[in-house]
Design goal:
nine-stranded mixed sheet, 11 helices
Length: 344
C-alpha cells in the first residue's frame, strides 16, 4: 500500500506544544499486598505501558498529549480508553482491533523491591501495530505533535510494530516533529543482546532527544561510566540527551552544556515501575513548556522519584499544581528553552 503524503496543512502549528506517544497498551494486574502471586486472593487492575505512562505524566503537567496504539475490542481495551480520557490524553488516534485482545501482564511487588512480571501479550492488539496505523491526512481535531515519543519496547514486541515505529518516526520527522527516544531495554523481549543492540542503536540514531537508563547505556555503548556514555552520545545525532541513574540522579547534555542533578529523596519506596517513564514525562513537559536543561532535569528527577512511592504504573506522577513551588517558579523565570537546540 502506498504511503499517503502529508500536506502542508498537516504541519505543526507553531507555539502549541503537544506530545504524541506510540506504543503498546498493557493492563497490569498486581496483588493488593506485597506477596507472591501464588499467595494472593485479590488483584488490582492498572492501565499502563511505557508510552501510555509518559503521555499521562505529560498531560498531568499541563502539556497536551495524545496516544496512538491498538486495543482489543474488549473490556480491557475500553478500560484503556476510559483511563486515558480521564487523564486528559487524546485517544482520537487509538485503533480498536476486533481481531486481537488487549495485552496484559501479572506483576508481583515484594517488600525487598523485587518485581517479577509474567506477560500475556503475544498476538495482542498492541503487537499488531503497523506502519498503516499512522493517520494521513492528519485528523483536524488532533494537534500535530511538537514531539513524538517512542520506546524500544514497541520495537521489540513484533516485526510489524518495529516497522511501524521506524515508519512513523520518519514521517513525524518530515512533519518537523522532534523525535524523543527511550531505548527502554527489556532483555525478556529480545531473542538476544545482539539483535537488541542493532535495533535499539538504529532507533537511538533517529532521536533528537535521547533518554537513557544505565541498562540502555550498557547495551548500546558497553559502558555505564558517565564520561564514556557522553563520548558515545556525541557520536549520535541527538541534540538533547539524558542519562538516568536512578537514585544517583541524572546527567543531561545539550551541545556543550552539561547538567547533573542529584536523585530526589523518596519517602517510602514501594514500587519502581514507572520511575523512568515519570522522569521522561517531567523532562519532556518542562522542555516543551520552555524551561532550560537544568530545570527540565530537576522536573524529571522529581517526577521519577514520586513514581516509586505508590504501587501502580503512573499513579504517583504529580500534577502541575503538586510540583514544589521552586520547580513551578521556573515557569515564570524566563529560562531559555532547550527545545530549539533539539531541532536538527
Amino acid at each position: 500500500m502506498p504511503t499517503p503524503v502529508e500536506s502542508v496543512a498537516d504541519r505543526p502549528v507553531p507555539g502549541v506544544p503537544s506530545l504524541l506517544t506510540i506504543g503498546e497498551p498493557l493492563i497490569a494486574l498486581t496483588p493488593k499486598r506485597p506477596v507472591p502471586l501464588d499467595e494472593t486472593d485479590e488483584l488490582t487492575l492498572h492501565v499502563g505501558g511505557a508510552e501510555i505512562n509518559t503521555a499521562v505524566g505529560v498531560s498531568r503537567l499541563g502539556v497536551a498529549a495524545a496516544w496512538l496504539g491498538r486495543i482489543g475490542d474488549d473490556p480491557l481495551g475500553r478500560r484503556v480508553l476510559h483511563t486515558l480520557r480521564h487523564e486528559g490524553v487524546d485517544t482520537s488516534l487509538a485503533i480498536v482491533d476486533p481481531g486481537a485482545p488487549t495485552g496484559l501482564y501479572l506483576r508481583e511487588w515484594l517488600p525487598d523491591g523485587l518485581r517479577r512480571p509474567y506477560y500475556y501479550r503475544r498476538r495482542s492488539a498492541g503487537a499488531r501495530l503497523s506502519a498503516q496505523d499512522w493517520p494521513a491526512p492528519w485528523p483536524p481535531t488532533v494537534p500535530v505533535p511538537t514531539v513524538l515519543h517512542v520506546t524500544g519496547i514497541t520495537a521489540a514486541v513484533s516485526d510489524s510494530a518495529a516497522q511501524g515505529v521506524t515508519s512513523m518516526v520518519a514521517r513525524a520527522s518530515r512533519l518537523g516533529c522532534l523525535i524523543s527516544v527511550d531505548p527502554n531495554y527489556r532483555p525478556l523481549l529480545w531473542p538476544d543482546q545482539t539483535v537488541a543492540h542493532t535495533a535499539l542503536h538504529q532507533l537511538a540514531s533517529r532521536a533528537d532527544v535521547l533518554l537513557l537508563s544505565e541498562e540502555d547505556a550498557h547495551l548500546l555503548f558497553d559502558t555505564t561510566d558517565p564520561r564514556g556514555v557522553r563520548r558515545a552520545v556525541r557520536r549520535l545525532p541527538a541534540r538533547l540527551a539524558v542519562y538516568k541513574r536512578g537514585s544517583s540522579g541524572a546527567i543531561a547534555w545539550s551541545g556543550d552544556e552539561e547538567v547533573e542533578v542529584a536523585g530526589e529523596p523518596v519517602a517510602a519506596p514501594v514500587d519502581p515501575v514507572g520511575a523512568g517513564d515519570g522522569f521522561n514525562a517531567g523532562f519532556l513537559a518542562a522542555t516543551m513548556l520552555g524551561l532550560g536543561l537544568a530545570d527540565a532535569a530537576r522536573w524529571g528527577a522529581w517526577c521519577g522519584a514520586r513514581a516509586v512511592e505508590r504501587v501502580g504504573e503512573y499513579h504517583g506522577y504529580p500534577t502541575l499544581a503538586e510540583l514544589p513551588a521552586a520547580l513551578r517558579e521556573a515557569l515564570r523565570g524566563g529560562t531559555a528553552s532547550t527545545m530549539d537546540g533539539a531541532h536538527r
